[in-house]
Write a structure and sequence with these properties.
By secondary structure, the protein is α+β, with helices and mostly antiparallel strands. The protein has a single domain, classed as B-lactam Antibiotic, Isopenicillin N Synthase, Chain (Jelly Rolls). Helices cover about 35% and strands about 20% of the residues. Strands 1-2-10-7-12-5-4-3 form an 8-stranded mixed sheet. It has a 4-stranded antiparallel sheet with strand order 6-11-8-9, with helices on one face. Helix 5 crosses helix 8 and helix 6 crosses helix 8. It is globular and about 60 Å long. N-oxalylglycine binds next to strand 5, strand 7, strand 11 and strand 12.
């Protein structure tokens, strides 16, 4: 490394610390009236993602508009009648194998609960900055914290996004620790999404052809943590990301998004927009589900574009313990799926080792799963 690079690397850390110390996040920058993004947010072209900058992403989106229009992640109606269960399982299986992403309707969480969650998260992020400073933290031992990018000091470039993180289970946050502006909304919504998680795990188990309660009994639905994102309007969206290209480090993600758009999913050699549908959740397969299904279900890369408009709000509920349990439990490819033609692709891995690797690596477009291949 030459001296110039060393100087730059040092400088970035200084800028990151200064930004971290404001405790006001990206929203604080926008409120202060910035017209240019600070350089920590500027996209670094060394990203290994296939399309290397938001400007290129926008250009390629425009070029491929007609083709991309015909592509959309599957939308699955979970409304059960006495004879359509097999159809639902089949749709979920196909979507998990071919897309790793789908949207669900009639999932049992009432629309007013979803809307009030969005309102509650907006109230949190848009309240006086001083109120948020108290919980600004990068200490993931805490059950509730506010910050900009969990990987601020690791990621290749900083994302234009603030996040309220809430640990729901096991041993979730005490209700009185949740900021009053969003307390009821978070408690009601999280309880219902937790129940939905169990339903989805049952469908996924059946989709894999293992016992319906298999994934639940292994504990895939026990841990739940919510990342409540706020993507403020960005003055130079072509220079940064809302969220860098990544896969999710969990079993399963249930995402609530507003009607703004900007989430894109990798499908073959294209990025496909996830069109907002009122009342729907976006569900995606996480790395641990790909590992346990021995690559049958896909944990697919996705990203969020920064935007001049907005703010955009989304809530990602990750099914995984936030802090890895100390129980030494390991997860590997399900033994029922093992055969001569389908030998294990991954070694058994504890959530602790996996999370340590994921956090140490930061979001960089490379799947953390690569590290655990046999
Ligand atoms: C995530 C994520 C997408 C979104 O939090 O992992 O991919 O729309 N979020 O905010
Ligand atoms: Ni994600």
């Amino acid at each position: 490394m030459n001296n110039v690079q060393v100087f730059n690397a040092y400088d970035r850390q200084t800028d990151l610390k200064a930004f971290h110390n404001t405790k006001l996040g990206v929203k604080g920058l926008v409120d202060s009236g910035v017209t240019q993004i600070p350089r920590i947010f500027s996209h670094d072209d060394q990203s290994p993602s296939l399309i290397s900058s938001p400007a290129a992403a926008v250009a390629e989106k425009l070029a491929g508009e007609t083709e991309a229009k015909n592509l959309a992640i599957p939308v699955i109606d979970l409304q059960q009648t006495h004879k359509n269960r097999a159809k639902i399982i089949n749709e979920i299986r196909e979507a998990s194998e071919n897309w790793g992403f789908f949207q669900i309707l009639n999932h049992g969480v009432p629309l007013p609960v979803m809307k009030e969650m969005m309102n509650g998260i907006r109230r949190f992020h848009e309240q006086d900055g001083e109120m948020k400073k108290d919980i600004y933290s990068r200490d993931f031992q805490r059950k509730i914290l506010f910050n900009t990018n969990f990987d601020l000091f690791k990621g290749v470039s900083t994302n234009w996004r603030d996040t309220l993180t809430v640990v729901v289970a096991p041993h979730g946050v005490e209700p009185e620790e949740i900021p009053a502006v969003s307390r009821e909304a978070i408690l009601d919504f999280s309880r219902r999404v937790k129940e939905l998680g169990d339903i989805l795990l049952e469908f996924l188990s059946e989709g894999l052809g293992v016992a319906p309660n298999r994934l639940k009994e292994l504990g895939c639905g026990e841990g739940m943590v919510m990342f409540c994102h706020y993507y403020p309007p960005c003055p130079q969206p072509e220079l940064t990301w809302g969220t860098t290209d990544h896969t999710d480090g969990c079993f399963l993600t249930v995402l609530l998004q507003d009607d703004f758009g900007g989430l894109q999913v990798r499908h073959g050699d294209r990025w496909v927009d996830v069109h907002p549908i009122e009342g729907a959740f976006v569900v995606n397969i996480g790395d641990f589900m790909q590992l346990m299904s021995n690559d049958r279900f896909k944990s697919v890369n996705h990203r969020v574009l920064a935007n001049k408009g907005g703010p955009r709000i989304s809530v990602a509920s990750f099914f995984r313990c936030n802090l890895p349990p100390e129980n030494g439990l390991v997860f590997g490819p399900l033994k029922e799926l093992r055969s001569e033609e389908n030998p294990d692709i991954y070694r058994e891995t504890s959530i602790k080792d996996y999370v340590a690797h994921y956090y140490q690596k930061g979001l960089n477009g490379i799947s953390a799963l690569e590290h655990f291949k046999l």
